[in-house]
TrEMBL record:
Superkingdom of source: Bacteria
Entry-linked CDD domains: GrpE
Family indicated by similarity: Belongs to the GrpE family.
Function: Participates actively in the response to hyperosmotic and heat shock by preventing the aggregation of stress-denatured proteins, in association with DnaK and GrpE. It is the nucleotide exchange factor for DnaK and may function as a thermosensor. Unfolded proteins bind initially to DnaJ; upon interaction with the DnaJ-bound protein, DnaK hydrolyzes its bound ATP, resulting in the formation of a stable complex. GrpE releases ADP from DnaK; ATP binding to DnaK triggers the release of the substrate protein, thus completing the reaction cycle.
PROSITE patterns cross-referenced by the UniProt entry: GRPE
Name assigned to this protein: Protein GrpE
Entry keywords, A to Z: Chaperone, Coiled coil, Cytoplasm, Stress response
Organism: Candidatus Hepatoplasma crinochetorum
Complexes and interactors: Homodimer.
Molecular function per GO: adenyl-nucleotide exchange factor activity; protein homodimerization activity; protein-folding chaperone binding; unfolded protein binding
Location(s) in or outside the cell: Cytoplasm
Length: 198
């Protein structure tokens, strides 16, 4: 029995040493290697795709953060605009009271208090980014910042220039809260008498 086992081992060993078996073994190794290479390429492709998706998602998330921050600031500014539109008429009332003439001494004391309140409002508005629209008689009319409430003829002010300023306008961070209320010049009135004299 021992001899049979030895003969069997010799036969197997001899078969393993044949060129045909060696070629088969080499082909099998090549096939395994090719399969492994394809598998590696496939895995690398999947990894590259996942990395690209990851980078895309990170960029999208960053853009979303920026957009949400911008929207949050706009909402805050918009809510400030609504509040300021309600508050500014009160400031206008203080200004009207302060422009009163021929007043008694008792009222002068009240006006001093009004002036302090108005100045405090002005400081608060400036601190949160509110600016007055600077406009004066003789400035060119700009529909972006001025609201024409009337138009009158004038010998002194050219056509489409401001003749009177009735109400101050305001901006919040370059956003219009309220336009300045103005009267615009129509220029010189041409009448029949004037035309004849000329």
């Amino acid at each position: 029995m021992k001899n049979d086992e030895q003969n069997l081992e010799k036969t197997i060993q001899t078969e393993n040493d044949t060129p045909h078996y060696k070629n088969f073994k080499a082909e099998k190794t090549e096939l395994k290697s090719a399969k492994s290479e394809r598998k590696i390429k496939s895995l690398q492709k999947n990894l590259d795709e996942l990395q690209f998706k990851n980078l895309s998602l990170l960029a999208e998330m960053e853009n979303l953060k920026k957009r949400l921050e911008k929207e949050r600031k706009e909402i805050i500014n918009f809510s400030n605009v609504a509040l300021l539109q309600e508050l500014i008429p009160t400031i206008d009332m203080f200004k009207k009271a302060l422009s009163a003439k021929n007043i008694s001494p008792e009222i002068k004391n009240w006006l001093l208090g009004f002036e302090m309140i108005k100045n405090n409002f002005d400081q608060i508005l400036e601190a949160i980014g509110v600016k007055k629209i600077e406009v004066k008689v003789g400035d060119e009319y700009n529909p972006k910042y001025h609201e024409a409430i009337d138009a009158k003829y004038s010998d002194k002010i050219a056509k489409d220039y401001i003749l009177e300023v009735n109400q101050t306008g305001y901006l919040l961070n370059d956003r219009l809260i309220r336009p300045a209320s103005v009267v615009v010049s129509k220029g010189i009135e041409l009448t029949e008498e004037r035309e004849i004299k000329e």
